[in-house]
Amino acid sequence: MQDTPPVDAPNKASGIRRILAATRYSGQGLMRLWHEEAFRHEVIAFAAGLVLFALVGAGIGDYLVFLVLMLVLFAVEALNTAIEELVDRISPEISRVGRHAKDLGSFAVFCLLGANAVFAAYVVVTALWG
Q1: Active-site residues: which are they?
Q2: How many other C-beta atoms can be found within 10 angstroms of the C-beta atom of residue 122?
Q3: Domain 36-129, what fold?
């Protein structure tokens, strides 16, 4: 027996239309994230890291790892922002559970900021004194 969608379910795009729709949604997410000051600071840190790597003569592998770490940071920042928006919408009053959700998202971002900083320091120290 085949599951059928409810009568009022919208038709979902498929094939190339689905890919285009997903790309549009991702672009909208990026535009929303750009309104977050923390994300703009992370983009500036990414650019500064690239300049620093160029100045110390980092290898291509270093750039690749840094890029991946930064993309993961951007993704976690987006998820953290999504959590904050959902908590604010569902529970506009200050609640212990809402505060915990926001704190956990913030901690995830903090961990990745630390990982990026440790890696950047490793690359610089290795390039200058390795």
Answers
A1: 77
A2: 13
A3: Helix Hairpins (1.10.287)
